[in-house]
Amino acid sequence: MIGFARTDRSALGQWWWTVDRWTLAAVIALMFVGAILVLAASPAVATRIGLDSFYLVRHHYMMLPAAAAVLIAVSVLTPRQIRRLGVVLFFFFLALTAMTLGSGMEIKGATRWISVGPLSLQPSEFLKPCFAIFTAWMFALQRTEVPGQRIPGNLISIGAYLATVAILIKQPDLGMTVVITATWAAQFFVAGLPIFWVALIVGCGVAGLIGAYFMLPHVTDRVNQFLDPSTGDTYQIDRALEAFSHGGLIGQGPGGGTVKLNLPDAHADFVFAVAGEEFGMVVCTLIVGLFAFIVLRSLLRMLGETNLFVLLATTGLVTSFGLQAVVNMASTLHLMPTKGMTLPFISYGGSSIVAIALGVGMLLALTRKRFPGSQDI
């Protein structure tokens, strides 16, 4: 067992015997599948944009060890340390996300990135898991009985949500807004939100989506193209569906795909289509199964959890992680309007894969076994 005995009292030794090794194995499997798919999809994209064929592959492979290091380092922490880390990073990345509005890099009409040396960083990717930690703490504080003290955790979480969403819409980034909203709503519901407020939040969410359709031109175009393909350019989604058709049950084999040669975002937003063409429905089903396993396994670990913060934080992190995967795969399969959102651990990633590792590391830390009466919560 990688050299750790049950009597090992070191931090890593205790981590190994308390962490959910099944979830950890599923995450490693996703990273491995992602490494293969990036190798399959990226050379064609790199050549098309004038780079060395393996430039994107090398960059992704250089970021994988960093992501793995972040994941392990964060998963070793106690729930109390996760809470402190999440709160500090929430304000830090909220500030960086706000900075993109004034000094961000504009890519495809959106200002979501800032330059950090030779790298481009999307702060909202890091903000997403930290937001789940911060709001979980606020909801938990609302229900903490402290003599002579009443902390308005619900109001603070609402303020944090509105501030975050306002910045994201301004960028604009509707996809991230939807994920943040779903995360916050799921936590609020689990925290004991009355059914009236549940209905009100759902109504506001529907109204927000309708408003986005009428006020944001790029949203209007994508929804119209989804409902009536003849109204716009559906080149990418047509090629993605063609890739799945070519792949069939077992695929064309590694490197045998041809659609990726003409699919602009084959390495990122549409990497699932590359998996479909080269490895077929069998591997695509395996990928879906790995995501479902991580989500369900993490929720099952919460059965009997007595600490409200841990329960709410896990709910938020799982919702964020699972929804991002669903949005990417559903849009690739033309089950919903296309949205520029990567497939966690599978798509080519620079800083984004480190951000995903941060969130999953927090999830692993919170779902570790704890002994009754532990003070590290």
TrEMBL record:
Superkingdom, taxonomy of origin: Bacteria
EC number: 2.4.99.28
Subcellular localization, as worded in the UniProt entry: Membrane
Topological category with respect to the lipid bilayer: Multi-pass membrane protein
Transmembrane segments annotated in the record for this chain: 21-41, 61-78, 85-105, 153-169, 196-216, 279-296, 308-326, 346-366
Catalytic activity: [GlcNAc-(1->4)-Mur2Ac(oyl-L-Ala-gamma-D-Glu-L-Lys-D-Ala-D-Ala)](n)-di-trans,octa-cis-undecaprenyl diphosphate + beta-D-GlcNAc-(1->4)-Mur2Ac(oyl-L-Ala-gamma-D-Glu-L-Lys-D-Ala-D-Ala)-di-trans,octa-cis-undecaprenyl diphosphate = [GlcNAc-(1->4)-Mur2Ac(oyl-L-Ala-gamma-D-Glu-L-Lys-D-Ala-D-Ala)](n+1)-di-trans,octa-cis-undecaprenyl diphosphate + di-trans,octa-cis-undecaprenyl diphosphate + H(+)
Pfam family, one: FTSW_RODA_SPOVE
Top enzyme class: transferase
Main location as per UniProt: membrane
Keyword terms of this UniProt record: Cell shape, Glycosyltransferase, Membrane, Peptidoglycan synthesis, Transferase, Transmembrane, Transmembrane helix
Family named by the database record: Belongs to the SEDS family. FtsW subfamily.
Name of the protein in its database record: Probable peptidoglycan glycosyltransferase FtsW
